[in-house]
Design a protein that fits this description.
Length: about 100
């Protein structure tokens, strides 16, 4: 695989994730779309790290940090979504106006 192939794959994944984030209203699907976009960024980081300087592992180290932060983000977001689902009986982000005054 060349760098162009990896970039096209990453761009396609990011575009699918962006479409899913903008088109969906379910909070769980929004989280899945964000994760898809983060994975597209991870592919970019690893691809550039391998093709620019294979001896250094800088891209892979940054990917580990991104995955760690993404896991923490999903855990916290799912906890919030579950609490809102218990209170409102919906995971639709259009119907959740709990924070409005």
């Amino acid at each position: 695989m060349t760098l162009l192939h990896l970039e096209l794959l990453s761009a396609a994944l990011f575009a699918i994730g962006l479409y899913g984030f903008l088109a969906r209203r379910n909070a769980v699907l929004l989280l899945m779309s964000v994760e898809l976009m983060l994975n597209a960024v991870n592919i970019n980081l690893v691809a550039f790290a391998v093709f620019l300087d294979p001896a250094r592992l800088l891209g892979q180290v940054i990917v580990v940090f991104v995955i760690t932060i993404a896991a923490a983000e999903v855990g916290l977001a799912l906890a919030i979504i579950l609490r809102l689902y218990r209170n409102r009986s919906t995971a639709n982000v259009d119907e959740i106006d709990l924070m409005k005054w």
